[in-house]
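Issue: ligand-bound run for (2S)-2-hydroxybutanedioic acid - logging full I/O for the record.

Environment: standard queue, default settings, no custom constraints.

Inputs:
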Amino acid sequence: MPTEARNVTVTGAGGQIGYALLFRIASGQLLGADVPIKLRLLEIPQGLNAAEGAALELHDGAFPLLQSVEVTDDATRAFDGVNVGLLVGSRPRGPGMERADLLEANGRIFGPQGRAINAGAADDVRVLVVGNPANTNALITAAHAPDVPAERFTAMTRLDHNRAVAQLAAHLAVPVTSIAGLTIWGNHSASQYPDVFHATVDGRPVIDLVGESWLAETFIPRVANRGSEIIRVRGASSVGSAASATLDHVFDWVNGTGSGWTSAAVASDGSYGVPAGLVSSFPVRSVGGAWRIVEGLEMGAFSRARVDASVAELVEEREAVRALGLIPD
Ligand code: NAD
Ligand code: LMR
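Outputs:
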């Protein structure tokens, strides 16, 4: 029997990441090579021409899996029946800015989108927030969609995870496929904690191969500040790697992670002392189409202090958006 088409909504589809994503989604890299796609591209009026142009090019790609492309500036229309929502649309930071500087400007985008998801999304909807500050924007979106289980709202730390894997593999001069068991904890910000204490390289504990000073002075700051490094070097925030990580996150969520784990920001259930409800990055496995936090990992003082610092920042962001009226008291 042919697989039913899935409705995929991309917000900010006329922007940089949108352009890098759309063609890969149409070619089957988001959900699988046998899953037909109906695309909805949501933009604000100023972005509609760019999205329309991308839609014309998608048409010209003659993608066998792509059944339709609709461009709209109406969130209700865009999220009606949506199975997968990629919430990319929001302002990127420029040189000298931190992601938290975007809190108010971008936070206002996500309440209305949460309401539109609540009103019309398919029962199995999965939402990935990419737009920064991604964790807190996911929290805002979920807060406006009370009828959708909170576990369906996630934020992207897969880019940080991929960066950490790549940095570690380069340092140890092994292929990226040799690395397993790495975790990004906390916020998608400079406070994030890339944790190698449970990581292995070809089955050997990474911690036997790297020193704590390399972790503290080189690896952790390099990964945590990679977004800024890209902005400094390119003059604009990451695009291709962000689109790639978006596909990785959703593909694994839908199709499973197999024996290993990855990192994603999901609604906390209180695991590892992270206050319930915060959208924080954890080690996660995808089982039966749902993210499950990997439980029972030991955490020493080195890790605990860093996880706590990043979680404290998430608590501050939650208080800030509450004070702005972007989430209910
Ligand atoms: P961009 O400026 O090129 O594109 C953003 C697009 O969003 C624009 O076309 C704009 O018109 C549109 N937009 C703005 N408000 C909208 C709304 N209410 N509804 C629909 N569309 C709207 O930016 P970009 O480079 O594509 O980056 C997008 C976001 O992704 C930024 O916030 C950036 O910081 C973030 N980002 C996150 C990660 C991550 O790992 N989580 C990585 C890279 C970038
Ligand atoms: C990144 O990590 O590259 C993005 O979140 C962009 C940014 O602002 O750092």
